[in-house]
Amino acid sequence: MNRNILLVTCPDARGIVAALSGFLAGHGANILEVDQTVLPEDALFCARFAWEDGDGALSREGFEAAFAPLAEKFSIRHERFDASEKMRMGILVSREAHCFHDILARVEDGEWNVSVPLVVSNHESLAPVARRQGIPFEVVPVPKDDPAGKAAAFARTEALFREAGCDFLVLARYMQIVPPSLIAAWPMKIVNIHHSFLPAFAGAKPYAAACRRGVKLIGATAHYVTEHLDEGPIIEQDVRRVTHREGVDDLVRIGRDIEKVVLSRAIRWHLEHRILVHANRTVVFA
Amino acid sequence: MNRNILLVTCPDARGIVAALSGFLAGHGANILEVDQTVLPEDALFCARFAWEDGDGALSREGFEAAFAPLAEKFSIRHERFDASEKMRMGILVSREAHCFHDILARVEDGEWNVSVPLVVSNHESLAPVARRQGIPFEVVPVPKDDPAGKAAAFARTEALFREAGCDFLVLARYMQIVPPSLIAAWPMKIVNIHHSFLPAFAGAKPYAAACRRGVKLIGATAHYVTEHLDEGPIIEQDVRRVTHREGVDDLVRIGRDIEKVVLSRAIRWHLEHRILVHANRTVVFA
Amino acid sequence: MNRNILLVTCPDARGIVAALSGFLAGHGANILEVDQTVLPEDALFCARFAWEDGDGALSREGFEAAFAPLAEKFSIRHERFDASEKMRMGILVSREAHCFHDILARVEDGEWNVSVPLVVSNHESLAPVARRQGIPFEVVPVPKDDPAGKAAAFARTEALFREAGCDFLVLARYMQIVPPSLIAAWPMKIVNIHHSFLPAFAGAKPYAAACRRGVKLIGATAHYVTEHLDEGPIIEQDVRRVTHREGVDDLVRIGRDIEKVVLSRAIRWHLEHRILVHANRTVVFA
Amino acid sequence: MNRNILLVTCPDARGIVAALSGFLAGHGANILEVDQTVLPEDALFCARFAWEDGDGALSREGFEAAFAPLAEKFSIRHERFDASEKMRMGILVSREAHCFHDILARVEDGEWNVSVPLVVSNHESLAPVARRQGIPFEVVPVPKDDPAGKAAAFARTEALFREAGCDFLVLARYMQIVPPSLIAAWPMKIVNIHHSFLPAFAGAKPYAAACRRGVKLIGATAHYVTEHLDEGPIIEQDVRRVTHREGVDDLVRIGRDIEKVVLSRAIRWHLEHRILVHANRTVVFA
Prior knowledge:
2 domains; seven-stranded mixed beta sheet
């Protein structure tokens, strides 16, 4: 089945829903899903259409030309995806294993339509986990207090992921701050998991900070990486209840289970083209 | 602003989204919200459109005639609502006060676009709560072990709500089983709150049953009332965590807060015409 | 039944549990509940005992003298409460009604062992809600940009609550910053509800800030008031899921239901002497 | 550090807390944790003590003799554990991989103090997952419609786990009904994960049943296995919100993440000797 996705944003306008669904239906598409919203502050119309079939004007080759007049009329920014296409996910890890284990298990069990052509880490320790599943694993150490060495490491990392043809990257508890160059190479295509309920406890050691503040729930946040640390558009968050009995080590342990599931939901939504970004916020057509 | 709602169901068909949005847009409507789904087992298309403006063909008077050809072509069942219209909510209560307090507070604070022309109870005890807010409260005792007396009581209840012009009824912990005649008079228009996570613990004394079974979460369920006790279409559910420390009395207390919020969400969705019922299940366009 | 509560904190020491339970049992008490914890960073032992019966040494009159040797030996700080004693709760409100409605409904239904001798507000608007339940309601306007007038208003407020004999105060969405003098008069005895998941979105307009940041869960926090705004010891928190569909007004509406239930849990725990405070964090023996 | 655990149940009696903590402290123990409860219907006292140090009377060899007088006086049933002892966990799986992956990842990362001497499955498919981690994996097919063959298969299974010296068993989505003989061999020592919020949807295909009933939350339940299918004492449960958009396949996918985390919590509590069973319910001193 040739299932396709169209993501659009444009200034809100009378007739836009009818125009878009009319365009698709007029070219023989069977519309399977429509989801739309208007962001009120910006009067921005956002929508996601999923459809199957359709004539040549909806094919990958024909789409842009056929859609151009409508796009111009409504000032539409759009992306069209072929849902059957297997995306290529690059992964960055350090020594924390839980998110990595969880992702690789989902990949192995075929939960997602994805391939993992490359994992890059600044440590050796998780190499066996990748390799026993036949997944390439490269170690690129990131030196401390050595800006030039760091830049070289990230240039190498970027080159490796480019060669591997990665469509997007996942930071699965990669404990390094990635540089602007890498972010620019995959804009709104790097998913990070931060181990707190952002914007609370941004930065390092959030569980220790949460313990010190005495919060009664801890959380995790998946977001797209931008140049501003822990401030990118939030994709998903979740929390779990804790009490005074839980020390920092317990929060770390409980938090792992939140991180895994929050990151995996964000990856799924990214893979299924369910996420639009506007003004540092996400619209998730889940 | 003249905001309107259209709820439709029909056999899934190619072109249905385009046809519906084209119909509205073609009559000058500004479509504000579209939400649709296809129930896969039945290939049933369900949708909710919200729009403002539009020409006479979309007015209350003109709509049915204008829509008829489309409805016939796609075998559409539909309902059109004027969102500004204040619905009239009848309430049935017994002696349990918490849901009643909660509903009246929301009414008083203007949270909902609703009026409460009448409350009926089989007990006197909550009369002061209604009357101090200026809400009519009628006591209709329901005799035990007296089928004729019971039938008379419910005939009276039905007559009272009819006279009061109630659009729908809410059973706010009304501890009586309502008869088929009342259900037939307000089909899919009687919202009940059951104090368990259905289908677990249907019937009487669910908190005692939950305690005996040793569950680790308790819940509440808002559903439309049908002839089958506690088996009507579920509108909303929620749960809260409990432990061995909580006895039946604690579950009752904790449960009250779940019941209140679950019932209030169901009422809001009913008032905003967000609920479709098919095959004893609800589609909630929330 | 004469049910009593003992809250203790002391440096962690070998034998402390046995010594405390031996003291109570040795005086004929039937220990009903023991809950204890050790805060690891400070090696601080914290415990709560509930007991009934006991000889004169455990009575209100005899307790301090009988307990003194043990308290000295282990450097114990303690509080003893008679659980049957009805506490007197003062309430401060502005114009937001939901928490106030919720509290008064619980009071009316007898959910808590509490009386409400006085409500103080800077506005008239909620006076009828209190008065129809026979609860005294005083309006004390708080002038803007007038430090002397503000100080006078709070001096009056403090005097009113003192005359009313209030054991503790609840800020039920009271939109004023209370001065150090009032805090000093009821130290760790003023419960506030803040409409965000602290420490995220401290200060004014948290729902607008949450909307701007695009969080996927919103929350509320009950905490004791200290001189540092929104930084006092957290008693309870909860959250609810939101999406891009919810604008600020929706967050405000959804948030109300979180605020009500979080504040009510904090009040119950305070009333049942379940909360210990240490190093700006709470131990809640729930 | 020699950390020890004592679990006790006895008829509730005046002085029991003081007697137990006095016994431990009197033998030089440093009591680290006390948790107790009284089940009201049965007036049953339940407690868990964790302690370190202590004289010979608290050692594994000396304990029973030293504790006997107290046990007799209060009719105590008790179990004493050495917390440093690594328990041996046997696992049963079929073809569903997610719980198995999750457990093995936790074992590999050292999250639990446990070893896995043996996995038994009725299918080959997960053998590579175990073997690449060096964990023995035996295939014991369970024939359909062949009672004698089935009995032989379970006799073999029991013998294998006995030889492997397993302290307890985990059914990680093992899709067979285990016979009374196996249950009798590990009484209250077989942990199962059922893919519904019990008691709702006991038996086969719970996600399909949940979809048909139109519930708004789905769940999973970890419980000890008894002779009554899906009716054993519940250890842990959790739920997640679903909507009409989710079909059966989505519920299966969403449910996997609930199952994993619920089962892992139950395993941890079992390993840490935090669970008491009485009258088909658990007390979990979490």
